[in-house]
Design a protein that fits this description.
The chain is mainly β and 141 residues long. It binds zinc ion. The site of zinc ion has 7 residues, from loops.
Length: 141
């Protein structure tokens, strides 16, 4: 892991293609989380061809501020893969970004039992490869 929160065990990495691949590649290449933004100005995630608001297929990848609030979470006590065992228990968050879309990521920099609804968090990218940066969230200090 290459983030401010230190070394973490190797995780299974996504190997997406198409728009999903572009999502991870854009984050890895720029160091900033990017989401699709329609020509009508509506942000969207996960990546898809058409805008749910207006139906347009005209959009661009644009950087988000990287701030949001905890919308929901689950705490994992058993690893889905042995690579996660050292991190137990860990929290997986659904964060509502200030731009609107909700996105899933791991919690870093805070014990899971300290989580609260609406807690302000910021995006922390975990650069795994040249084409994959995973999305984590840390509390805003
Ligand atoms: Zn639209």
């Amino acid at each position: 892991m290459n983030s401010e929160f230190g070394i973490r065990p190797d995780r299974l990495l996504p190997a997406p293609g198409g728009l999903g691949g572009e999502f991870y590649e854009k984050a890895a290449a720029t160091g900033n989380l990017h989401l699709q933004r329609c020509e009508c100005a509506v942000w969207r995630h996960p990546p898809r061809i058409l805008c749910a608001a207006c139906g347009s297929d005209k959009w661009t990848w644009e950087p988000v501020a990287g701030l949001g609030r905890v919308f929901s979470w689950t705490i994992t006590h058993r690893p889905t893969d042995p690579a996660f065992a050292a991190e137990l228990p860990y929290a997986i968050l659904v964060v509502e970004l200030d731009e609107g879309p909700r996105i899933v990521g791991n919690l870093v920099g805070l014990a899971p039992e300290a989580l609260q609804l609406d807690l302000r968090v910021r995006v922390v990218l975990d650069h795994r490869t040249d084409t994959v940066a995973l999305v984590d969230f840390a509390p805003v200090n």
